[in-house]
Amino acid sequence: MKIKLKCLGRNYSSEGETFDEAIDKIKISGGARVTSILTVEKDGVSKDRILNGAHTNGLFGQGSPTTKLIHLKLVKNMLGV
User: Fold this and answer.
1) Sign of the C-alpha dihedral, residues 12, 70, 49, 35?
2) Do 58 and 78 contact (CB within 8 A), yes or no?
3) pTM of the predicted model as reported, rounded to 2 decimal places
4) What tens digit of pLDDT does each residue of 36-65 get?
């Protein structure tokens, strides 16, 4: 599974066997409370979603592990992963 994130004019990408592993590999220093674009590619099928600032910061910021799990679940539901 490949993940690409476009946030604040920067492009981040990672690969992992599962969605969770790929998300954990992306690190944004200092967090980001801005809108971002998340692209997930699996088995040749690509899906793009726009994440609001709360989801972006919840997934890639320096919050608590519980907050990260909550946002991870919401984003997985949005993408249908």
Assistant:
1) negative
2) no
3) 0.85
4) 999 999 988 999 999 998 999 888 888 789
